[in-house]
UniProtKB/TrEMBL annotation:
Listed GO CC annotations: nucleus; RNA polymerase complex
Coiled-coil blocks: none
Lineage: Eukaryota, Fungi, Fungi incertae sedis, Mucoromycota, Mortierellomycotina
Similarity-based family: Belongs to the eukaryotic RPB4 RNA polymerase subunit family.
The species this protein was found in: Linnemannia gamsii
Protein's name according to its UniProt entry: RNA polymerase B
């Protein structure tokens, strides 16, 4: 999504496909949907707001990893080399959210991966992630 947004008097182009996420997200820690689901479940209380309920419904629908131990394993895999040094937090979160089966598919959906990581390394990471997803209980 591309947009123009003023930030402290400066016009800034934002484009996720080129990792131009804007100053607000420059040093942000990106969570993937399954992590957000865990956090929302942990803070669930009666009489929650409509926004909270809509957010919970969204993450419940798009949650790829239902077992908290598997979520931790996926995050740990993202923090291992070479993935950690090659990709940004945004890119790894998108990989976890999309659960692509093939490196080619991941690179088509996340254009910034194209020149950052070779297909074999990416495919190995995707296979590890898919194996974790397959064997969760």
């Amino acid at each position: 999504m591309s947009g123009v947004r003023p930030h402290r008097g400066v016009i800034e182009d934002e484009d996720a496909s080129t990792l131009k996420l804007g100053a607000d997200f420059q040093d942000a820690h990106c969570l993937f949907v399954s992590e957000v689901k865990i956090l929302l479940d942990a803070t669930q209380r009666p009489n929650t707001s409509e926004v909270y309920q809509k957010s919970l419904n969204y993450v419940t629908q798009f949650n790829r990893f239902t077992n908290p131990d598997v979520v931790r394993e996926v995050r740990a895999g993202m923090n291992e080399e070479p993935i950690h040094s090659l990709l940004t937090g945004f890119e790894t979160a998108q990989l976890a959210n999309l659960c692509c089966e093939e490196a080619e598919e991941a690179k088509a959906l996340i254009p910034s991966l194209a020149n950052k990581i070779d297909d074999e390394t990416l495919q190995n990471f995707l296979n590890q992630t898919l194996d974790l997803k397959k064997f969760q209980t």
